[in-house]
Amino acid sequence: MCQDYAHIMITLCRLVGLPARYVSGHLLGQGGRLAWVEVIAAQDGAATALALDPCHGRRTHSGYVTVAVGRDNTDVAPTSGSYIGAPSGRLTGDRRVGVVALDIPLR
C-alpha cells in the first residue's frame, strides 16, 4: 500500500512541476519494506531533497533506512537471496550515513 501512496504522490508532484523520486527502504521497528518520496525543492537558495512519507503523512526521520532510490518501484527492486546452513544465528545490521551524489533522472 505504501508503494501506491508513493506513486500517487510522485505523479502529483510531477504534475505541478516538482521533481520527485521513489525511495525504498525500511522503518526501524516496523519490519517489511516501506516506500516514501523525496521531493526536490528550493530552500535557502539551494536544492534540497525533502523526504516525505505519504503513507504515514509525515516527514521522514532517522528511523528511515534507505535501501534504494529511483524513478519508481521498478527501479528499486528488493534484494533477495537464500541461506543454506545451520538454523541458529542472529541477524544484525549496521547503518552508516553519508552524503552521496546521485546521477538519477528525476522526471
Structural class, by secondary structure, is: alpha+beta
Contiguous uncertain segments of 5+ residues: none
Mass-distribution shape: elongated
Q: Work out the strand percent.
A: 25-35%
- CATH topology of the domain at 2-75, which one? C8orf32 fold
Distance from first to last alpha carbon: 23 Å
Task: Kindly report the spatial arrangement of strands forming the biggest sheet.
Answer: 4-3-2-1-5
**What is the gyration radius calculated from CA atoms?**
16 Å
**Mean pLDDT reading:** 83
Summarize the structure.
The protein is α+β, with helices and mostly antiparallel strands and 107 residues long.
Walkthrough of the structure:
The chain is α+β, with helices and mostly antiparallel strands and 107 residues long. The protein has a domain at 2-75: C8orf32 fold (Roll), CATH 3.10.620.30. Helix content is 13%, strand content 33%. It contains one helix and five strands, in the order αβββββ. It has one helix spanning 2-15; strands spanning 20-27, 34-43, 46-53, 58-59, 64-70. It has a five-stranded antiparallel beta sheet with strand order 4-3-2-1-5, with helices on one face. The longest helix has 14 residues, at 2-15. It is elongated, with a radius of gyration of 16 Å. The model has no long low-confidence stretch (mean pLDDT 83).
Structural descriptors:
5 strands; five-stranded antiparallel beta sheet; 13% helix; 33% strand; alpha+beta; C8orf32 fold
